[in-house]
Amino acid sequence: MDGLTEANLKALAGARSFERGLAYVDAVSGVEVGGDWIRSSVHGTERYEVELALGGPGGPTGVCDCPYGQEGNFCKHLVALGLTVIARAAELPRQRRVAQDRARGLEAWLSGLSRDELLTLVQDEAAEDRNVRRRLELRAASAQGDLAGVRSRVRELLDIGPFTQHGYVGYADARAYANQAGQAVSAIRSLTRSGRAADAMALARDAIGLLAGTVESVDDSEGWLGQIGADLADVHHDACRATRPGPEELAHWLVDHTLGDVADLTDIDPLDYEDLLGDEGMTALRRHAVEAWKANRTGWAEKHLMQRLAKAGRDIDTVIAVHAADLAPNGHTHLTIARELDTAGRPDEALEWAERGIRDTEDLATVDTALVDHVADRYVQAGRLSDAVALRRDHFTARCTLLTYRQLRAAAQATDRWRAERENALSLLRAAAVRKGTHGGPVLVDALLDDKDIDNAWQAATEFGAHDGQWLILADQSRSTRPADALAVYLRLATPLTRQTGNAAYEQLVSLLLSMRDCHRRLDTPDGFTAYATNLRTTQKRKRNLMRLMAEHDL
Q1: CA distances (Å), 364 to each of 251, 315, 350, 502, in order?
Q2: Which of 125, 158, 165, 203 lies 20 to 30 Å from 97, alpha-carbon distance?
Q3: What is the per-residue pLDDT across 263-284, written as a single tens digit (0 to 9) for each?
Q4: pLDDT tens digits, 380-438
Q5: Which long-range CB contacts under 8 A does 390-396 form with residues at least 24 apart?
């Protein structure tokens, strides 16, 4: 029917959703056929409304109000309806004609009713369906200019009471609540369209506050409330555009809203109102923002608003002032200021702020490492290589890590002063290792390994300790010159692996065995390795994957 085939459905949905859709065919009910569309309900974890559009230029399309479908995907429920359509292809042309005849019949019947008969019909429907009644009441209050009545009904629609269990709206009921709240949005939007934008603006603000009050009591995993909040923001903006409120009043409200708890719900950006505010309103907006920031200089929302307004006005000095009022103790804020000044083309001031961040940090071990990198890079760019070395030396002295050792080495090598710097750095690491005993050696060993100084690295590991990964590196890099020492390391590392199972352990053990074999070859003691491998095969014979790996490597 209209090019709808199983292959077509599979291509639209993907193999996984198509297979899942097969299981939902029996859950399809209430199929309605229109001119070029087919609707139904599909019962899954909830009842979802599904619609297929047929005969379009790009082939069939569909919408479903399940979470996956709302992301724009052709879901399993659409597959189920599509399969139902294919199975009933012979019946559908007749059903379509019947549906069209019914629609024409309904229209003709309604057209023939008198005013009183139509009124009775509508009243009966309103009495039987609460949602119909609420929509009609809203439209009536709006048409009659009854703002208090509209406000009252909007409050009813945003009330979570009918949907709560133990004071909370669960996941299963959140969508129904959002659908009801959506009626409030539609009612407020209709006020603007009917020429009552000022009322719409006031009601939108009330509704935003009411919706914000529900956030902590609703499971909004699917983002229903967020969408309602965004819709209310759009309604407010449209109403303001139509009614043009006073710039001072609008600016004050925008600042209060942006700094309030409801800001994340609507994501209203005051700068989106710039054309409505005009010069007078933007001046007022900045004034109110400054007043709020001065009252709470460390508040994230206040700082963010000030920075947004200042950047929009290219007022870099205000941006700096906002940052400077709340400096982080590790220099991170100083770095942010430096980057802002660099971007503004003020490099000298930028470097001054960055250097101040280094000076103001009480302990260089806690300084933001990105700040140290920034200052060192600026020194190098300016040809101040000695200053770069001094900074890297101070940072290494405070941190004593492999990374800071490498950074000191890179800076010192650029000045041909690495030999002296290295001696001092290694002395510092040795002193730290002495203080920490056998737990202080790993950084020293790492530094020596990084310098390819294997003999001193082995000596440091022996004297101050090293972890197994370092010992393995030492053994691998020393095997050709000190095979007996390397063999002792491999034997020690292999022992705990013989008590483990799993392919990862087996692969590590075989790698060690290959290294042991090489050591025995260099020591001219092949019989020693043969005896070890034979004993290992005997004691580990139940580990079939290990035996297979050993055989593959002729071990």
Answers
A1: 44, 32, 20, 45
A2: 125
A3: 888 989 999 999 999 999 999 9
A4: 999 999 999 999 999 999 999 999 999 999 999 999 899 999 999 999 999 988 887 65
A5: 391/358, 393/421, 393/424, 393/425, 394/364, 395/364, 395/367, 395/369, 396/425, 396/428
d(CA 28, CA 93): 19
Smallest CA-to-CA distance from 395 within 370, 423, 430 is with 370
Helix orientation angle between 247-259 and 197-212, rounded to the nearest 10 degrees: 10
Per-residue model confidence as pLDDT tens digits over 157-195: 899 998 998 889 998 888 888 888 888 888 888 888 888
Q: What letter does residue 106 receive in the DSSP assignment?
A: H
Q: Which helix (H) or strand (E) holds 415?
A: none
Q: How far apart are CA 228 and CA 207, in angstroms?
A: 10
3-state SS, one letter per residue, for 287-336 = HHHHHHHHHCCCCHHHHHHHHHHHHHCCCHHHHHHHHHCCCCCCCHHHHH
Q: What is the DSSP letter of 160?
A: -
Half-sphere exposure of 104 toward its Cβ, with a 13 Å CA cutoff? 7
The conformational region for residue 33 under phi > 0 = left, psi -120 to 50 = alpha, else beta, is beta
Q: 51: closest CA among 23, 84, 18?
A: 84
**Residue 370: half-sphere exposure toward Cβ, Cα within 13 Å:** 9
Which pair of structure tokens corresponds to residue 479? 């095997």
Render the burial of 191-208: b for 16+ CB within 10 Å, e for the rest. bbeeebbbbbbbbbbbbb
Q: What is the DSSP letter of 222?
A: T
Amino acid 440: pLDDT: 59
Closest CA to 231 of 255, 267, 259: 267
Beta bridge partners of 169: 218
The amino acid sitting at 415 is T
Give dist(CA 40, CA 48) in Å, integer: 8
H-run or E-run covering 62: strand 61-64
* Confidence (pLDDT) at 412: 96
Which residues, listed in sequence order, are joined to residue 61 by a DSSP beta bridge?
A: 53
How far apart are the C-alpha atoms of 552 and 555, rounded to whole Å?
8
Task: For residue 509, count other CB atoms closer than 10 A to its CB.
Answer: 24
Q: How far apart are CA 123 and CA 117, in angstroms?
A: 10
Distance between CA atoms of 131 and 138, rounded to whole angstroms? 11
Question: For the CA atoms of the chain, what is the radius of gyration?
Answer: 37
CA–CA separation, 221 and 38 (whole Å): 30
Give the Å distances, CA to CA, from 93 to 52, 55, 104, 130, 374.
15, 14, 17, 35, 72
Q: 342: how many CB neighbours lie within 10 A of its CB?
A: 17
The DSSP secondary structure of 497-554, one letter per residue, reads HTT--SHHHHHHHHHHHHHHHHHHHHHT-HHHHHHHHHHHHHHTTT-HHHHHHHHHTT
Q: Is residue 518 pLDDT above 60, yes or no? A: yes
H/E element holding 76?
A: helix 76-87
Query: Looking at the DSSP assignment, which residues form a beta bridge with residue 304?
Result: none
